[in-house]
Automatic annotation (TrEMBL), chains A, B:
This is ABC superfamily ATP binding cassette transporter, ABC protein. The keyword Zinc does not apply. Pfam families: ABC_tran (PF00005). One of its GO terms (molecular function) is ATP hydrolysis activity. SMART domains: AAA. It comes from Pediococcus ethanolidurans. It comes from the Bacteria. Keywords: ATP-binding, Nucleotide-binding. The keyword Nucleus does not apply. Residues 3-228 form the ABC transporter domain.
Amino acid sequence: MEIKISEITKKFGKKQILNGVSLTIEPNRIYGLLGRNGAGKSTLLNIITDRIFANDGTVTIDGVSTHEHDELLGKIYLMSEVNLYQKRVRLQELFKASKIMYGGFDETYAKHLCEAFELNPKLRFGQLSTGYRTIFKLIIALCLPVDYVFLDEPILGLDANHRELFYKELLDTYSSHPRTFVISTHMIEEIANMIEHVFVLENGKILVDDDVDHMLSQAYVITGPGETVDQYTEGLNIIGTESLGNLKGNYVFGSLNDDREIPDTVQISRMDLQKLFIHLTSGGGTGK
Amino acid sequence: MEIKISEITKKFGKKQILNGVSLTIEPNRIYGLLGRNGAGKSTLLNIITDRIFANDGTVTIDGVSTHEHDELLGKIYLMSEVNLYQKRVRLQELFKASKIMYGGFDETYAKHLCEAFELNPKLRFGQLSTGYRTIFKLIIALCLPVDYVFLDEPILGLDANHRELFYKELLDTYSSHPRTFVISTHMIEEIANMIEHVFVLENGKILVDDDVDHMLSQAYVITGPGETVDQYTEGLNIIGTESLGNLKGNYVFGSLNDDREIPDTVQISRMDLQKLFIHLTSGGGTGK
């Protein structure tokens, strides 16, 4: 069972948000969906989960359109920044309502998560701080019997301890009960160890669709005296550069030239995922 | 010129938010103000900048109470999550208004920052996304002629590229024109290299008031086979523990026992600031 997104386009007014996006989401994997502010990540997630309509293109599960067969949407859950809950309702009632809507809900696990995060399920949704609203929505997302969980900025307002607890719980529930998670976040380094595959959206198009290991295996920082570094990296795919006095670092994505001898004063090291992302997408923001 | 906070207490209703907080903020330093959600960080910043009143205690600049001499508040700026601006007003007008209120504003630097962040100053405040509202408020904070800049969660909604640009600009403006920055954030690892001194608030009290280097010099992770690790760390100040199969890691804060021989199977390594914070404050959240 896989989700196939084909040639999705979306405009808001005159503004092209998504421009021919195609990708495949496979069962039982953890994906990262990365992109600058305004790149179209939330729009794409809303289209996949049929909350908004695309102008063109299709979303299918095993070849069947989710838009035409909305029982398929019961396999998918999107946790987003939008608060869908009535403020006066108690959390434990919202758990019950979720169970009714999705035909199941892991109450034992929800109880465990409430205890771990020290969230009292007798509180009303409106009483929660930003951080605890996020935690509540994460609990819903982790306890529903769906095959695909989409998490749009799942750590908004969470302090460092709660973020670490969430990452741990996600990996625990994933290994005891494999399903697919697609995580969209700006905190790239923190999720880098969890995700196997990454999609990078830029200006409404897919810029990267690759396994994390494969991506990182082609990402190098070449440092040393400016001239020597420039000489050594000539002709390579330089995606960014930094300098510090006479020293220079060129960020290279792609293969190095193995015939070229490495000068003694030059060092080659690896890039982490966040740095790689920054340099791949440094074309700039979207203005607003 | 230093800011002295003495024995500040604050209650909201029956809830004690701050409980006898004392600390000193010196000129031309970069501080981190850390704490779990609900620890009282924003309340403390609002009291220092006289936006709300304390129930008890004083805030003085060189011995003079800021509450009684509000011309001193012109030396201090707080950038917070609250949006104080009218949505229909253009950013360039808001820059002018800030200049009038604070008796100065670095227009050249504001222009540079708008270009670097690709923010069009002709836009109206209401047209900006969450991320760009944060960027606009950061520009104000960096361009005002104040001696103390307090930044409450300054990276809310910023993508990785914009966060990196902000850290770079903050260090640039700090070195060309030294003043004090107090940064309150949950993204501890990202600011760890910038801050010299850290305050950790927990349950309304100061838990740590220390230089970052000194703190980290006392923070160790001892890993190896569970029993050996426990034996070696017996009697030390263990602030956390993790396990992986038969292996165990004990997080120690304080001095190691130098008389004890280090077993061959045991490794001692350093902790980063975020891990140290997590283990120091793992008593739990505040419920909401």
